[in-house]
Amino acid sequence: MMMGFSVQRWAAWAPGLVNPASWETWLAKPHPLPAEGTPALSAMPAMMRRRVDRLGRIALQAAYDAHVDAPDAPVLFASRYGDLGRSVELLTQLARSEPLSPTSFSLSVHNAIGALYSIARGDTSAYGAIAAGEETVEAAFTEACGLLADGVPRVMVVVYDEPVPAPWEHFARDVAFPHAWACLLSASTGADAIHLGCATGPSDAPVTRQEPDALPADLRILRFLVSGASRWEHAAGGRRWRWERHA
């Protein structure tokens, strides 16, 4: 089964890449980026902004930039690892028998960033937090397509991650720098539709020479979404996720 949607608007943020034009140039020819940098997040009220750490600010900056003046819509925040830095801090405090920060604890859960965004905007639309390993982006877009099929006019997907902190960095080295991107989606079955499908077994795509690509899977998906490419496949979890754009 193929699910169709169109991207109405997109935005992304990483240190050194703050607008779509710079992202398109970088995605066409990636190069090392700074590991440090934090967006101003001026759209969020200052009292609430002070509670948000770097990863949250990056995710929320992408969300605000993609939403802009669009009507309220359900938002799906998708992160493979979430805010592991806060978890490490809390676990370290527990190991030392130190009191935990209630604020840090409340913001360590996967849905905290979405909750802050909803409260700051006064938006009562549905929100979700998704973590599905290496298939996190596909899971988020599948959920978005389900909402669109139910008649929701638009859905926003926000994808974000940062390098895994010590002592867990040896489990995942695919995220080299903090980043986030967001897409405002609408239903589409026309020529502008992007289709997402899932299959098992060998691929029926033509065999082509694979170029080395150090980008994490989520940024390869973003590159497909914004580049106009006709097809991209992501093998994960015993499945083949096929992203297609029909001319």
Provide key terms for this protein.
8-stranded mixed beta sheet; 247 residues; 8 strands; globular
Question: Can you tell me about this structure?
Answer:
The protein is α+β, with helices and mostly antiparallel strands and 247 residues long. The chain has helices at residues 20-28, 46-49, 54-67, 84-95, 102-106, 112-121, 136-149, 217-227, and strands spanning 2-13, 75-78, 127-130, 155-161, 179-187, 194-199, 231-236, 239-245. Strands 3-2-4-5-1-6-8-7 form an eight-stranded mixed beta sheet, with helices on both faces. The two termini are 19 Å apart.
Summarize the helix and strand pattern as letters.
EHHHEHHHEHEEEHEE
Instruction: Kindly report the spatial arrangement of strands forming the biggest sheet.
Output: 3-2-4-5-1-6-8-7
Report the end-to-end length measured between terminal Cα atoms: 19 Å
Please tally the β strands and state the result. Answer: 8
Structural class: alpha+beta
Which value, in Å, is the CA radius of gyration?
Answer: 18 Å
Beta-strand residue fraction: 15-25%
Mean pLDDT: 88
Taken from the alpha-carbon principal axes, the silhouette is: globular
Query: What count of helical segments does DSSP give?
Result: 8
Low-confidence stretches: 207-212
Helix content: 25-40%
Which sheet architecture does the biggest sheet show? 8 strands, mixed
